[in-house]
Design brief:
Largest sheet of chain B: 10 strands, mixed
Radius of gyration of chain B: 22 Å
Largest sheet of chain A: 7 strands, parallel
Number of strands of chain B: 12
Radius of gyration of chain A: 22 Å
CATH architecture of one domain in chain B: 3-Layer(aba) Sandwich
CATH topology of one domain in chain B: Peroxisomal Thiolase, Chain A, domain 1
Number of helices of chain B: 14
Strand order of the largest sheet of chain A: 8-7-6-9-10-11-12
Oligomer: heterodimer
Number of helices of chain A: 15
């Protein structure tokens, strides 16, 4: 499923035509491949005020072999990391502008703008809270102005969460976050295990992926396996044929299971205990749609979507929490929500309700998970190009895929990369968060 | 030589849903089905790239090009190419016989794990050239001079265009298996209604097992089929009673399409291992294969029914293991025909038959019929000849495992040529 318009816009003739007509010019995004350097060129690390994260950032970048001297004036920048933790009030925002403006001008393709700040809610004064909140408007706007596949994101780092920064920093700078744009992530203090292998961060982990037979689920299985995990691929018995193919392709195990069955959670827990001695990662990806306008929606459509998309996630997660010793220390749960759950969508009252419910679930469960040294998060995909979107009418599909800052649909692998990142041991400080993988969609922004 | 034998463990199984001939798998060959079945097993137990001690499988209806069917299927699967494989053929006993062979090698310590299986297609059956034409073509191939070639070609006749199609008949009697079964049914006075009742229970049991997810970890869908398409969950005695007899003749004909198995396509595989290998790989042990026995009868001149060999095999197996027929929690008697199952049970209850034919002072006696084929059998699933044994072994092993430790099951499979294979499994 190639993006014909993107390919055209990047061809010789297409470049001329789209430029002259002022048409969108979607870029070919830089996506992660094993062994790929964190950044392709030099990065710039700056600070507004007395930032406290400069050393952490420089350390992570230096370890990844990134030049942080800002390069020479005629060199394209691969990334700008701005430490704004020292902001004392709105007046200092001028320094942010002063630093970013010339740097953004020099950004190369698929470059990264990453602003680090303290959470507004923690601010000791109203002026500081205002200045910190201002960054959100700034970063979201910069993200909309950037072109050529570049993204801008904001990470809020509480004063006790410095140790949690390395993994999100690497994620947002790397090709793993190709389709994550205009997002705000809030970190929390956590014990972060040292020494993830950046190319195999999930090595030795057992990861359950539900709905793994097709589409985004299959992509999640592939990426988790690539990152070193043993994947337990789960899907309904009727999908067993493609499920077996996915499991075999990633060297994992296929488990045919209807997750809405009353004993699904305990069954899964027993099997994971017996066959794998427990598990480290659960990716709740299984989901269905039964679209109808609310007034035409029958109970079957409503109930089926709720049972699969929300109740099964609650029940299976609870069963895994209850089963003694199954969920290993440092466990990661990642739920797939949806843009529809944030923005709503005509004809999807049931689906949007279930996907919004997931957000409520991960936020409510986050403290309990934190107490176990674990995390629970959600990702909310936007327009992702799958077999399902391929059957949409051309007009609907084109509009749907272009109304975001990257002017293109995301790929299943973009969702998978974000999930695999949240599953990393190093992502211990990301908990109760909802990460949108939507290219900064205008829907629900 | 190993100091002592160990019982082989049955770790699990996999099969594709069985499909009535010329239906869902009409375009799939034996190798396609066996490869998919092996891959489903590999996915279930995470065996990608692993070398298994051996894979033994076979097919009853086989193309000559498939002489190395199992090996070729292994090469096409996700198992390591270093996995040895061989073909076995014992008619409908093939699947169970492969399990016995693999289990015996494990018992002897020659291998640590192995896969037993079977596959059959009645849709993609081999059709050979006419025997006269074949001889002519062989002479043509060996001809060295133009004259010899012309002489060979002069032997061509229009009638030689008629191909050789495999037929479901016994070569030495010219009777189909159904016709043989009809003779046995008449001899044992097996009634129409009891056959229909057995068929009904088979469908009901299989449907219930599917509905409760029993087959979730035994079956992997194939080519869009998710359940055996011969299964009729809503059939009834009334519906079965309307079917016309297809085997036997006249008033006494009782065997219909409803209480006989249809021609079927499908494949199955079973993973066997030593307890140590299973433990080392964190894999379950559903049951052990305790012992097995084969027997054959003279259905041509000996006055015994074609499908009665298991009746002879079971008492030998029981005696060797110090068991009675009533010492089992579950019975899996292959439903080639409903009448075959009923004749088998009736023979074991008959003092005269047991004394004269089986040499037993007392008959084996009746069994608790509620323990028979509790998750359905061939009348409901269909019967792809060589695949039936693997289906039964895996189904019974899981049945025993669910019932708890120390449970015992008996398998009885009849086969063409007057043969039978029986086995004891224990959880």
């Amino acid at each position: 499923m190639s993006d014909w318009y993107r390919d055209f816009a990047n061809s010789g003739l297409g470049t001329t035509i789209t430029r002259q007509l002022g048409l969108p010019r979607p870029a070919v995004l830089r996506r992660y491949e094993p062994g790929q350097p964190l950044l392709t060129g030099p990065g710039l690390v700056g600070a507004a005020g007395e930032g406290r994260l400069r050393d952490v950032v420089s350390g992570v970048l230096a370890a990844a072999g990134v030049r942080v001297d800002g390069g020479t004036d005629d060199e394209r920048l691969s990334a700008v990391v701005l430490d704004a933790t020292g902001l004392t009030g709105p007046a200092q925002l001028a320094a942010v502008h002063e630093l970013l403006a010339p740097a953004v001008r020099r950004l190369g393709p698929s470059a990264r703008v990453l602003v680090l700040a303290e959470p507004p809610a923690d601010a000791p004064t109203v002026a500081q809270a205002a200045a910190r909140q201002a960054l959100e408007g700034l970063v979201r706007s910069v993200a909309k102005e950037l072109r050529n596949g570049a993204t801008a994101n904001l990470v809020l780092v509480p004063s006790d969460a410095e140790a949690a920064l390395a993994s999100p920093l690497r994620f947002f700078l790397s090709g793993r976050s190709a389709y994550v744009d205009g997002q705000v992530l809030t970190l929390a203090a956590a014990e972060v295990p040292a020494g993830d292998d950046p190319d195999r961060p999930l090595v030795g982990k057992v990861a359950v992926v539900t709905g793994a037979a097709r589409g985004i689920g299959a992509a999640i299985a592939r990426v988790m396996a690539r990152d070193g995990a043993h994947v337990v691929a789960v899907d309904v018995p009727a999908a067993g044929e493609s499920l077996a193919q996915v499991a075999n392709a990633v060297g994992g195990t296929a488990v045919a299971l209807d997750l809405t069955a009353p004993d699904a959670g305990p069954r899964l827990a027993r099997q994971l205990q017996a066959r794998h001695g427990g598990l480290d990662v659960v990716v709740h990806n299984a989901g269905i749609t039964r679209d109808k306008l609310l007034v035409n929606m029958d109970a079957d459509r409503w109930n089926a979507v709720m049972a699969v998309n929300l109740q099964a996630q609650l029940d299976v997660t609870q069963a895994l929490l209850d089963a003694d010793g199954v969920l290993r220390p440092g466990a990661r749960v990642v739920s797939v929500s949806s843009q529809s759950g944030i923005a709503g969508n005509r004809g999807q009252t049931n689906y949007a309700a279930s996907k919004a419910g997931i957000i409520g679930m991960v936020r409510a469960w986050a403290p309990e998970f934190a107490a176990r040294g674990a995390t629970i998060n959600a990702v909310a995909p936007g327009f992702i190009v799958t077999e399902m979107t391929a059957t949409m009418p051309l007009g609907t599909r084109e509009v749907g895929s272009r109304i975001n800052s990257l002017q293109q649909g995301g790929l299943p692998v973009d969702v998978a990369e974000t999930i695999a990142w949240l599953a990393q041991p190093g992502s211990a400080g990301v908990n109760g968060q909802v990460v949108r993988v939507c290219g900064q969609s205008v829907l629900g922004a | 030589m190993p100091a002592q034998f160990r019982k082989a463990a049955i770790v699990g199984g996999n099969r594709i849903p069985f499909a009535r001939a010329n239906g869902a798998y009409a375009r799939a060959g034996n190798q396609d089905m066996l490869t998919a079945t092996l891959d489903g097993l590999v996915a279930r137990f995470g065996l990608q790239g692993q070398t298994v001690g051996e894979v033994a499988a076979g097919a009853v209806l086989k193309h000559s090009r498939d002489f190395n069917l199992t090996r070729e299927s292994v090469l096409g699967s996700r198992l390591s190419a270093a996995t040895p494989s061989y073909d076995v053929q014992q008619a409908c006993g093939t699947g169970l016989e492969t399990a016995v062979l693999v289990a015996n090698k494990i018992a002897l310590g020659q291998i640590e794990c192995g896969i037993a299986g079977g596959v059959d297609t009645a849709s993609d059956a081999p059709i050979a050239v006419n025997e006269d034409l074949r001889r002519m073509l062989i002479s043509l191939g060996s001809a060295k001079t133009v004259q010899q070639r012309l002489k060979a070609l002069s032997g061509i006749r229009p009638g030689q265009l008629l191909p050789e199609v495999p037929r479901n008949v016994e070569p030495r009697t010219g009777l189909s298996m159904g016709e043989h079964a009809a003779i046995t049914a008449r001899e044992w006075e097996i009634g129409r209604e009891e056959q229909d009742q057995l068929a009904l229970r088979s469908h009901q049991n299989l449907a219930a097992a599917y509905d409760r997810g029993f087959f979730d970890d035994l079956v992997t869908p194939f080519l869009g089929l998710t359940r055996d398409d011969n299964l009729r969950p809503d059939t009834s005695l009334e519906k079965l009673a309307t079917l016309r007899p297809v085997f036997g003749a006249g008033e006494s004909a009782t065997m219909t399409a409803g209480n006989s198995t249809p021609l079927t396509d499908g494949a199955s595989a079973v993973l066997l291992a030593s307890d140590e290998w299973a433990a080392a790989h964190d894999l379950p042990v559903l049951a052990h294969l305790v012992d097995a026995q084969t027997a054959a009868v003279d259905h041509v001149h000996g006055g015994e029914g074609l499908l009665m060999a298991p009746v002879h095999a079971v008492p030998v197996l029981l005696a060797r293991n110090g068991l009675t027929l009533q010492d089992f929690d579950f019975y899996e008697v292959h439903e080639a025909f409903a009448s075959t199952v009923l004749a088998t049970l009736r023979a074991w209850e008959n003092p005269g038959y047991c004394k004269e034919r089986l040499g037993l002072d007392t008959p084996l006696g009746p069994i608790d019929r509620s323990r028979l084929n509790v998750h359905g059998s061939s009348l409901a699933t269909g019967h792809p000849f060589a695949a039936t044994g693997g289906r039964i072994v895996a189904t019974l092993a899981k049945t025993l495992s669910e019932a708890g430790p120390g449970k015992r099951g008996l398998i009885s499979v009849c086969a063409a040529g007057g043969q039978g294979v029986v086995a004891v499994l224990e959880s």
